[in-house]
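Crash report, auto-generated. Payload:
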Amino acid sequence: MALLEVNNLKKYFPIKKGILSRTVGQVQAVDGVSFTLKKGETLGLVGESGCGKTTVGRSILRLIEPTSGQVTFNGQNLLRLEREELRKVRASLQIIFQDPFSSLDPRMNVGQIIAEPIRNHLKISKSEMRNQVAYLMERVGLHPEQMSRYPHEFSGGQRQRIGIARALALNPLAVICDEPVSALDVSIQAQVINLLAQLQEQMNLSYLFIAHDLSIVEHISDRVAVMYLGRIVELATDRELYQNPMHPYTQALLSAVPIPDPEIRKKKILLQGDVPSPINPPSGCAFHTRCPERKEICSREEPIFQNIGADHWVACHLM
Amino acid sequence: MTEIKEDNVCQPREPLSASRFRRNWAKLRRNKAALVGAVLILMYVLSALLAPVLFTGNPSAPNLINSLETPTLKNPLGTDELGRSILGRIIYGSRISLLIAVGVVSVGIVLGIPLGLVSGYYGGKIDFSIQRVTDTLLAFPGFLLALALVAVLGVGFKNTVISIGISMVPMYIRLVRGCVLSVREEDYVEAARAVGTRDVIILIRHILPNVMVPITVQTSLSMGMAILFAAGLGFLGIGVQPPTPEWGTMLGSARSYLFHAPHVATFPGIAIFLAVLSFNLLGDGLRDALDPRFKI
Amino acid sequence: MSEPATPLLEIKDLHTRFHTLDGTVNAVDGVDFDVYQGETLGLVGESGCGKSVTALSILQLLRCPPAEIQGRILFEGNNLLDLDREGIRKIRGNEISMIFQEPMTSLNPVLRIGEQIAEAAKIHKRMTRQEAWRWAVEMLRMVQIPGPGSRSKQYPHKFSGGMRQRAMIAMALSCNPRLILADEPSTALDVTIQAQIMSLMQKLKEEFNSAIVLITHDLGIIAEMVSRVVVMYAGKVVEEAPVKELFKDPRHPYTQGLLGSIPVIGRKEQTGRRLQEIPGIVPSPMETPLGCRFHPRCHKVMNRCQEQEPPMIHLAEHRRVSCLLEA
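Recovered output after restart:
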């Protein structure tokens, strides 16, 4: 049973111009994304900047209103919920942000920040609240005595722990991790990744792990989806995807990752040019303008996202 | 439980300096101009509070025998056309001017901040309507707007405050809306929505405290402007009415004696000038001290 | 590796301090290393370790005060710190040039790309306007920007992140510098674009025979790009080694921790899901720990590490480590 099911999710941002704000075009940030997230698993969502991965995360939570599609979480279609119902669902579907500096209100102390979700959803006494916050702080490796300190007194990694404690305050079922470590120093990244993995085991959490760093995604995920220009081009189990990438984009992406071992010299597939604009995405397969193996059909027809066996899904005409 | 092997794992970094307040205070103190402004304002406030002590007697009671005296020991700044001590009237006048200034920014804040918050946070139709009204009001010079409002409401202390206050509201709306537009995009606002915080709470607890810095600066500048506007109305004879000692009114009535008793107009003029200047200096100083971009 | 005997750049006991309201920050605290002609030297470390400040000190691109630079920076034997404003200006962009991390903000948005590249050539090579412009177009072609003629007339906002970084590289190379300081040149870029930029830099370096100081926190890029590595921590050099030795046999516990803490594709089966972590936080330069600066986070910490500053131990040529375990 899937905990979270996303079906044909689309988000088009209108481009407005002139004094009357007429819509002159659309940024097709997310263009028909579908996937499922099972209980207790981690689904990695990778792609380069501008591919729409962050928009997917925000649309699921309706922090951005999606244009169309379906998001079923725990049996409820989130896109149909009223404001107040949605507010309640957000207790069990949480998000961790990329930037540990801007995601914490600088004018609130750590205790207030972590208590906020609890205060929104439960009525408990002051001392109970204190205990709960202290418990959460311990869980994420912070000292509860620091409850009354302000975010600017903490380092990046510690701030990210505060963000994690806030996300876990209401025992969520699933957490959307939006690049949770990419703003952190290398030696701190490992701490946060270990913490996330450990919390997942203890609380049986599901993660949608959005990131651009393929090594980190490989490390933490059970399954991985690769996005390009608003669409998922390949989705498979972690091992399968990294050992047997089928889509030319996935292959190029993997080959481009620098390997921290000077003894290994691997052949890089250097892609030509830049990612096309999502305002006018290329016809047919969106990747055909940069694809080293493109065929004539690629610019004409959009490839179908199909299962090529062993739960390995690819959208490519070469299959 | 998370393993914390070393005790130092998550000791918070010691704050860079003792506190935000002390940092800002240190920065403000370095700014000599702002310090001068603050001291001057303090003097005005003290003279307003201690007026009965500093000047015994009734500043409004005429004493025609002594009219238009030049400065003497008894009347250090001379007397006006009705023989009243100018020093006494300036001291008592600071009460009126400061009260007007406080009243005006209160009106501006009470009306302007909520409208600006709502306009910036919700956007859409609400924003559109509020902004068009603001645009229209801003098309008039502020003083002209206050003048027009006085024409409708009538003269007097209360109406002066309301008129000038309302003429300041569009400025506050604009300022607050602009700040909200940028703060609204901050991740912590999105984070608050993501944990199910209600909009009203987000506005009050997250957005408002984070737009307080520009509001504080604006308030200091607005106080100066309010004093100037009130004096302007008084000068034209449609502000606070005589015999209440008000700087602008004093200036207005001194106009007729400008040539043979210039001190009657000069001293209230200096009082107005210094009051406005000091609020502007303080406002600029606050801007520099509170703006996190000016680090050193 | 055979290198000419005299280094192109010698940094000796460099100290860079910032005097701020909150006190003095020792951003760089006694750093020394050499760069030889034609080599790529990697400067690795985490935020606040002083690696960027070191680069900015070389070209004196820091505002003084609050910054104060001490020590010796010998470029072809001349101490750059002895030069006056005019002297250092002649070096900047001409003999030594710099590539910054942010391709978005390092270009002037109101000047055409061509003008910005031509500027350096005009100043340092005394070219005429037309010559410089033609040179700029040539440089854009060299960094593989398609249609360099028409592209040179465009403004930076028309360029994508990758193309801006290419333009920055073109600008940096426009006077054939002997030394390029590249401060996280690809951090803001996507992996596929990063791969393009890195292979381009490699190629151009060989063509121009320039030396590169590559400043980065990305050990993958270090492994692929550089021949020698200097590891910095909290304003000091903790280890230096040829790249292969560093990865095979890291001697400083910090280097060991750094190498162990990054996930490597395909290694999950061996290492398990738990990454090796370096506990604690990167110390703020306001209050560096006494003794060895790494001791509060070190898993091999000894009693004397808390009091005694570790000496620099030279193990071989270009192989040194600053740790009491080696002493």
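Post-recovery validation: The two ends of chain A are 29 Å apart (CA to CA).
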